[in-house]
Amino acid sequence: MLEWLRAKDSNNQTIKQSRNKKNMANIKLSEDKINIIKDIAKSFGNKAGEVINVLHQVQGKFGYLPAEVQEVVAHELNIPVSRVYGIVSFYSFFTMEPKGKHPIDICLGTACYVRGAEKVLDAFKRALNVEVGKCTPDGKFSLNTLRCVGACGLAPVAMIGTKVYGRLTPDLVPSIIAEYND
Fold it and tell me: d(Cα 72, Cα 92) in Å, to the nearest integer?
């Protein structure tokens, strides 16, 4: 059972705090964010069968789906948090980690892999000093892998946002990153 409490954050702004009585985990979200989630859930009739659509819209608003957000979605749709977490962790579209301003996705599909995608990935990791699934401390880049972007003829391939880079080699990585350094 969720229990909603009013509290003040470190900036003395009103927040709602949710506490699951079973595990006593404290969840902190601003009231504005909670209301955004409620509005999205309401737009889908607060129906449990619309959980993927709700999560898709919520991720579009916040950029990712941390545990706090998942718990509010579960509460609004009257489903277990474990179901929401199962969906978020199963589908690669959803992320529980914030993405950078310029999300980088390295294709590790068969064609890309056999043509050196792993070396390209290592070059991005070294150049950005970041691990897969993480974001740079400045929030500029995040690094992820995916299975196929459908550009096998250009292998190995990486995407930064919606821009596709093909026929990559590790030595091209610094100049690609430089394109995004404002």
Answer: 21
Cα 135 to Cα 35: distance, rounded to the nearest angstrom: 27
State how many domains the chain has.
2
Q: 140 phi and psi, to 5 degrees?
A: -80, -40
The contacts of residue 164 (CB under 8 Å, 6+ apart) are 149, 151, 154, 157, 158
For the beta sheet containing 158-160, the strands, ordered from the edge strand earlier in sequence to the opposite edge, are: 134-135, 141-146, 102-107, 158-160, 163-165
Report the pLDDT value the prediction gives residue 66, as an integer from 0 to 100. Answer: 96
Rounded mean pLDDT of 24-34? 76
pLDDT of residue 170: 98
Domain that holds residue 152: 102-178
Q: Which residue has the tokens 């990712």?
A: 64
pLDDT number for residue 6: 42
Q: What's the CA gap between 176 and 42, in Å, rounded?
A: 42
Amino acid identity, residue 130? V
CATH number for the domain that contains residue 72 = 1.10.10
CATH number (domain holding residue 150) = 3.40.30.10
What's this model's pTM, rounded to 2 decimal places? 0.66
142 inside domain:
yes
**121 and 69 fall within a common domain:** no
